[in-house]
């Protein structure tokens, strides 16, 4: 699962049909519109075509907080960033090099967020400049003034005007015109683009497809006639079959591949789309999405289904996870297998529902009253979103335990090509065996060494028992004596140690000994590894480590950390910084993984974290690495 | 009602076992002496024996409370869950395994207070299960706090100067929920009525909600005293499609002919309160059943793989 | 708040009216019965009288899991342990020296739990020996056989027989007869005992009082005629006014003394009795107990009331705390003052509802998704149960934050005499000022240094705003930009550092430098301090530290730990032990406070924990200390 | 209805301010163009101005959803809470401060799905507040998932082949709960009816539950289209104690005389479904009100200390 960031090869310039073509190892572009103008569709199509042609790609949606925010407002910007490269792309990169904006205001939002490179090329619809409404014209003037603080190369495009030649409502045309422009600029294979459009409109009338192709072609020819730059990001034909999808789709497919048979959920952003995807296909496979009346019922139904012989899962995000807390305890106590997917978003409370954060880690590991040992793991790529569900289901069943899968909003909506998984029937859960069990078979016949025990399933003659969340013995009979309570807690806890004993130490990316080790978990992996690779190219002594298992932690961390002068985590969650008022090393609240690592290894693990509601940029991480290494000896 | 053995994952062989009430008895029930829960347990075991339900295909689900210890005392499968959440667990079991015969047992705090949201929605889902509300008008296990069904004025440890509000009527509330399909009331102290009501509920294809007036001699000894002693205070609802016990009619002087398919009349009867009404208020097997609407094909691992491959193809590069 | 354990003075023997009177610094006794036979009333009366006479005392209830468990069953044992001493008593001690048992089976339960000293004197009702029911007679024989494995001095008492001379139903008489026996054995002031009975039956007919006094006196004279031992635990007249109550009563009184005005709760053992107590008196003080429909509503109502100008609190235990998780996040995010009392019980899940555990610490500190800084503190004595509510209310209001008070089942039902608090009107919350605020006053006018801000209360003209759990700015307006999110998280977190800067380092009990420091929190304090004091008397180099604040931790811990060769926590929660299969230093799951301390101080804090559902015994802790010190250098 | 200024902690001085609709306007509402929530907001602001409610003594409480953004757009106090929990928060506010005028605004998912338990209990508490259910038959904010009130067969992202179950009827459900005191239905597209219904609800002393049929042009454009366009599909409930708009009667051909104190008839009307019925189904000011029953004396700190000392004396050694 290691990533190879695009090489920083020097760009080469060539000449093609009168236009300079700059060959680059990678590029970052954005499509920005008012909500409802289809920038996301345009961008996702562009990303998919690029992946199909053999580029590495990573797309990130830019999602406004409202359903239909007012047009022409910075807050309402809707769009997508696409980073493409010759090699595999693992994160959204630093700043955007080329942006197509359907109006000045949505562009401003990205400008204000410092998302655009200082020398970015910007293709901006010029319609507002001469708008009927004087307020719009005034806003345009002010926006251009504001934008002039940077060295952008701003190109006015008659986007609306050109579209009106083909459609009545330009709101439904600009995105295809833009796709045409981009296809020309990036030398995309037009046939593939049309195939993509055909697929997209496969449920619509043919005329719709044709109109969109006309828009596409108009965009191509306008660009050809008016633009003086093109970018070639060389493609490499992948030597294996590839698929491209976002993390939530991958989680859903993974769930089906794992043989999970029920997804019991309650809608919550950014987790819901897992269930949207599954609602379309799951029942054909004999599975079921159950939308429950609330999050508590959602996990309760999943637990009931698991008790009855399935391994069910539920998918949620922060506020929903909070509501499931009590039921998680019951699943742990009754040793009912259960998979819980938490697609993390910005917190606390309702927080930033559409934005990324990694702030549920400690709540996942420690959040339930009483002693609740459970497995917590985190996918770090879209591909891992798929495969982790298979791992999760298998662990849940083997260990009769709760497995929490910590994804996040960055993985959820990000698209990335990856090797097409070769499905294996053994990944599927085995249908429960309902044959009779001998008299005396206990429902919790714990192995005294490992704490493991086989499940009894309703329907098995002779196996009748009552599961209970009260303290109980191997017969699941209520017991409150001290020894039994101590022993059963021991056995439930032991399972984590047994699992841990089967795990391998995590693999460091970079030198085995160095001045600094940067540790991360989940979706930040690509950005961190790219940063340390850049750092190494600069001669910095730095390595990276990504942790898939957070509970139990993989073995060998202490030994690994010894090989580095300094260890720090990089996370998308909150930590105090030492230069802030009142904060000192003693009272500092630290990043969540940093906490876990410090308590476990007693190594002085530092952290750098941000809660910007955005994925981290490799460039910012690199700056942190430089700073940390420059800070010299004091660790 | 369950489709026993054979349908989904069953044995396919004719079952030759026969079960007595004893075959359904778990460990000795640990309720207080005189607790109405004992009578309900006996009534349920009688039903199980009468219907010859296979212990291994029967599941009792409960929440937390005195009444929720119920599953431990029946020798079938069981899930003693958490407070207020019996119905989601039961729903999950039945959705996963429609072949199992599912009973849910709840207390009045469990069902009508902390579990109220699930209760409303489970009525609406109308999943085929038998649902018993053991209503002692009090929080028993936690030692005498006001429950939603506590009579106004009755003193508890949290409302020592008497319950503030009129008691919630679970029958009326259930009848207000769209897709309610079976609503009945019986009492722990009328064993034959209890038995017949349980039978009718179990036979009903859908969510069969039975409120059982249940005596708690420890915390609410006075509440049902009169009704249990004075047969004049009870009115039996009688109908060919309801519960009709000729013997009982000799004991209880008041009988009312009520057609349980008439929901308007059912609501009217639930409203007026001069007598304790026992019987089937409403029953209509024609309502939409969620688990039926959600039936999915059974697939082998290989079939799944094939379908899944087609699914993945949609994302092929 | 330091404790002085009873001195281990040598017992002295004297002769009084033909009976040997042994003078002892302390004694532990138990009264054991079937549920409903009133052993608890007997024991609590004995404890209260002892306290009034000037003994130190600590009582612990023995509570069966069922409401009315079947009679004559070990599981059904109901009763009380009372430890009295010349000096202050801070915990339930080690093993019982004298037990009165109303039947052989309840006695067996305590025998099996190893709760009785090897040389304990046991006064056992002899009625079962010649019972009509042969099964009972058989059980008696077997019980006596089982009991003979110890050197108990077993004395048969015609308890039932004697009671039947006075009452028809001995189940309602034995406890008073027993109280009489105990009063004689321990030289209690009979007038005080009668006063106590009078108080107890003040709402009953005079005849009831008189019958009980007759029973009492019968017990006294039976003892006088038949027993050959008496114990004198010398009393010291306290130089200040004292009160005696259990921890839940103290929490309730503390809440009223603190000026809290609403307790919004849902019943849950062992927290409910706080609300039972308050339901009797709170509304006379203008307060209110609201029993909500569930735990979520309970905290929601409290939050609403706090928003409207009160400081409200909720009281719960593990499963209820789990359900409140989401609302805790909302309170943190909206900076609404709120006090949450968690009377901890055995977990996980429903666990051991009536038994003690300290397993909710990490859930309290870390349990909410997103970053939820809040204050967590733990009373360690009954007296602190009272005072901590005043602290909690004040912090909640000053810092506009959530304060969690972690009590437990041991404090909840334990009774102890302590100095009568002198009430201070300044402890009361100030009634909200509803005067107009100037235009532009923001609802979250954060001090940029401290993060503190004054509350605006509905009713204040000019102050209108909408509280929200979404990310927001000082105006409480929804904002999703990166800087605002980072800054507001910083400010909410900062408040903890500011509070921490006002706290004093905790005070070590025992030597300032030693081989071992034992750290604890909450109700284990008395047992730990008694153990280390005994240890010091043995010449062991050991000290103890109790932490009141768990979040933020008090300052100076790192420096304190440096003075000890080894540091360990002693807690009533679960931890793996190194000699168990699969467990090693790396994968070991540790005590919850140990985790916090390791991560904070990077000191290798070890732990010894037990989940026996019982308070810890000083003797067991002392054994652990001996073992830990014997283990020599390796820490 | 609130007792403004003066009672509990008020100013005692005559208030000379007068408020226009604009005085109640917060920042520009950010709902989609054509969203029915805009009309409800306008109706509420009209009510506030009509009743001259003091902005500082008025509190809007909501959960999470499109509709729950409501408090941000009214310039009074507000609490934008968490999903499903508007009613507990509103209850806490009103219990603590009966002098405040409290409104609760909820979506159909918010109130009838995740909030169902609180809803049932809030109806029973019957605390004096005005409660608006903005029912667009869908989960709006999370982008088109089935809600309990989604019509059977209507496709959503979680039930793409159509909602499985018949829609829950919030009016009928409310009418089933003991102690329900005011239940009305109106629609965002009939402003004058909306306004009068809000007035009646606000004037009602108790829990005044108003279901507002609310158009969501983005996710359920078809659901209310017919009803909003074709006046023939609507039936107005008319009564001197209900909502009666002579002007509207010219527009809507069907009017039904209904006495809102007749709960049986109200339930009957809520049941039959050929027309969309707008009006007051039930209203009876005589029901027990929890916050009234719980009124506590006001005490000074000194009084409290004295009472508390007496309390502590009980524990004196
Ligand atoms: C989440 C949670 N809240 C509260 C409790 C405490 N509790 C246990 S049983 C119970 C109520 C019991 O009353 P009821 O449901 O009427 O059952 P009964 O004991 O009367 O049969 C409560 C509040 C709990 N176990 N879990
Ligand atoms: C605890 C929790 N669960 C789920 C969500 C996600 N969520 C936000 S709004 C909403 C439902 C919105 O539907 P509705 O209540 O009908 O309001 P509308 O948007 O239609 O006005 C959901 C499920 C959440 N924010 N919190
Ligand atoms: S307390 Fe009441 S309900 Fe509970 S077991 Fe005893 S009698 Fe039954
Ligand atoms: S999505 Fe629907 S309910 Fe939400 S704001 Fe838009 S139109 Fe209104
Ligand atoms: Mg009950
Ligand atoms: Mg809605």
General shape of chain B = globular
Radius of gyration of chain A: 26 Å
Q: What would CATH call the homologous superfamily of the largest domain in chain A? A: Pyruvate-ferredoxin oxidoreductase, PFOR, domain III
Count of distinct structural domains of chain A? 4
CATH topology of the largest domain in chain A: Pyruvate-ferredoxin Oxidoreductase, domain 3
Number of helices of chain A: 19
Biggest sheet of chain A: strands side by side, in what order?
12-11-13-14-16-15-21
Task: Characterize the largest beta sheet of chain B: strand count, sense, and whether it forms a barrel.
Answer: 9 strands, mixed
* Rg value of chain B: 21 Å
Low-pLDDT ranges of chain A: 1-9
The amount of beta strand of chain B, in percent, is: 15-25%
The termini of chain B sit apart by: 50 Å
Strand order of the largest sheet of chain B: 2-1-3-4-6-5-9-7-8
- Give the class of chain A from helix and strand content and strand pairing: alpha/beta
CATH architectural name of chain B: 3-Layer(aba) Sandwich
Largest sheet of chain A: 7 strands, mixed
Question: Based on DSSP secondary structure assignment, what is the total number of beta strands of chain B?
Answer: 9
Number of domains of chain B: 1
Helix content of chain B: 25-40%
């Amino acid at each position: 699962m290691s990533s190879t960031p695009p090489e920083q090869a020097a760009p080469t310039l060539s000449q093609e049909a009168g236009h300079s073509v700059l060959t680059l190892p990678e590029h970052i572009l954005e499509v920005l519109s008012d909500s409802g103008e289809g920038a996301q569709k345009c961008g996702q199509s562009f990303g998919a075509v690029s992946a199909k042609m053999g580029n590495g790609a990573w797309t990130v949606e830019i999602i406004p907080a409202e359903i239909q925010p007012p047009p022409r407002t910075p807050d309402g910007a809707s769009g997508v960033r696409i980073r493409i490269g010759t090699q595999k792309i693992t994160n959204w990169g630093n700043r955007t090099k080329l942006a197509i904006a359907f109006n000045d205001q949505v562009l401003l939002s990205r400008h204000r967020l410092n998302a655009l490179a200082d020398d970015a090329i910007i293709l901006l619809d010029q319609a507002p400049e001469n708008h009927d409404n004087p307020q719009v014209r005034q806003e345009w003037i002010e926006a251009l003034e504001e934008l002039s603080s940077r060295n952008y190369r701003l190109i006015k495009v008659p986007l609306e005007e050109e579209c009106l030649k083909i459609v009545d409502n330009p709101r439904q045309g600009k995105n295809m015109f833009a796709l045409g422009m981009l296809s020309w600029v990036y030398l995309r294979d037009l046939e593939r683009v049309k195939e993509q459009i055909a697929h997209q409109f496969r449920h619509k009338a043919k005329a719709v497809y044709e109109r969109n192709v006309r828009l596409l072609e108009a965009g191509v020819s306008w660009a050809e006639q008016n633009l003086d730059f093109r970018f070639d990001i060389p493609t490499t034909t992948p030597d294996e079959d590839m698929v491209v999808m976002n993390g939530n789709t991958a989680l859903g497919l993974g769930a089906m591949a794992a043989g999970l048979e029920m997804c019991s959920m309650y809608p919550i952003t950014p987790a819901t789309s897992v269930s949207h995807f599954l609602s379309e296909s799951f029942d054909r496979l004999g599975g079921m999405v159950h939308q429950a009346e609330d999050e508590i019922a959602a996990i309760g139904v999943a637990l009931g289904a698991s008790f009855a012989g399935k391994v069910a899962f539920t998918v949620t995000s922060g506020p929903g996870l909070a509501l499931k807390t009590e039921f998680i305890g019951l699943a742990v106590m009754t040793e009912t297998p259960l998979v819980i997917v938490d697609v993390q978003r910005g917190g606390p409370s309702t927080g930033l529902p559409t934005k990324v954060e990694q702030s549920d880690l400690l709540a996942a590991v420690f959040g339930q009253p009483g002693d609740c040992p459970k497995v917590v793991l985190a996918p770090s790529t879209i591909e891992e979103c798929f495969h982790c569900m298979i791992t999760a289901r298998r662990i849940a069943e083997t260990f009769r335990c709760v497995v929490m899968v910590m994804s996040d909003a960055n993985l959820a909506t990000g698209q990335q090509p990856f090797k097409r998984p070769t499905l294996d029937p053994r990944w599927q859960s085995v249908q429960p065996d309902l044959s009779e069990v001998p008299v005396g078979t206990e429902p919790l016949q714990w192995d005294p060494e490992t704490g493991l025990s086989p499940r009894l399933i309703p329907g098995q003659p002779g196996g009748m028992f009552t599961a209970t969340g009260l303290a109980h013995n191997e017969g699941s009979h209520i017991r409150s004596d001290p020894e039994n309570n101590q022993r059963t807690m021991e056995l439930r806890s032991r399972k984590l140690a047994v699992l841990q004993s089967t795990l391998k130490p995590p693999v460091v990316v970079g030198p085995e000994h160095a001045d600094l080790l940067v540790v991360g978990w989940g979706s930040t992996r690509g950005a961190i590894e790219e940063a340390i690779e850049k750092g190494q190219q600069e001669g910095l002594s730095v390595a990276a480590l990504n942790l898939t298992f957070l509970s139990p932690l993989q073995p060998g961390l202490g030994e690994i950390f010894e090989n580095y002068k300094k260890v720090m985590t990089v996370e998308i969650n909150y930590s105090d910084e030492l230069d802030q008022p009142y904060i000192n090393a003693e009272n500092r609240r630290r990043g969540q993984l940093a906490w876990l690592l410090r308590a476990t290894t007693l190594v002085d693990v530092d952290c750098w974290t941000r809660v910007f509601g955005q994925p981290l940029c490799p460039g910012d991480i690199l700056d942190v690495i430089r700073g940390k290494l420059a800070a010299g000896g004091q660790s | 009602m369950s489709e026993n053995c054979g349908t989904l994952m069953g044995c396919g062989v004719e079952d030759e076992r026969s079960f007595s009430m004893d075959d359904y008895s778990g460990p000795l029930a640990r309720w207080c002496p005189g607790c109405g829960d004992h009578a309900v347990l006996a009534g349920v075991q009688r039903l199980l024996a009468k219907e010859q339900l296979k212990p291994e295909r029967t599941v009792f689900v409960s929440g937390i409370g005195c009444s929720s210890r119920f599953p431990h005392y029946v020798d079938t499968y069981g899930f003693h869950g958490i407070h207020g959440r019996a119905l989601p667990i039961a729903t999950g079991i039945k959705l996963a395994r429609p072949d199992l015969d599912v009973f849910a047992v709840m207390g009045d705090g469990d069902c009508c207070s902390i579990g109220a949201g699930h209760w409303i929605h489970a009525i609406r889902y109308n999943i085929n299960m038998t649902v018993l509300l053991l209503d002692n008008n009090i929080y028993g296990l936690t030692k005498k706090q006001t429950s939603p069904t506590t009579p106004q004025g009755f003193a508890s440890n949290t409302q020592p100067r008497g319950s503030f509000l009129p008691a919630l009527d679970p029958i009326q509330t259930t009848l207000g929920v769209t897709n309610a399909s079976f609503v009945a009331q019986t009492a722990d102290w009328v064993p034959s009525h209890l038995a017949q009501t349980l039978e009718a509920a179990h036979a009903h294809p859908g969510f069969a909600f039975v409120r059982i007036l249940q005596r708690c001699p420890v915390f609410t000894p006075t509440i049902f005293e009169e009704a249990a002693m004075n047969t004049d205070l009870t009115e039996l609802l009688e109908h060919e499609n309801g519960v009709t016990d000729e013997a009982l009619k000799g004991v209880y002087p008041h009988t009312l002919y009520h057609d349980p398919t008439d929901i308007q009349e059912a609501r009217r009867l639930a409203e007026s309160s001069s007598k304790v009404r026992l019987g089937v208020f409403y029953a209509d097997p024609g309502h939409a059943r969620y688990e039926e609407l959600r039936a999915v094909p059974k697939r082998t691992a290989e079939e799944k793989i094939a379908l899944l491959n087609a699914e993945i193809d949609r994302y092929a590069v």
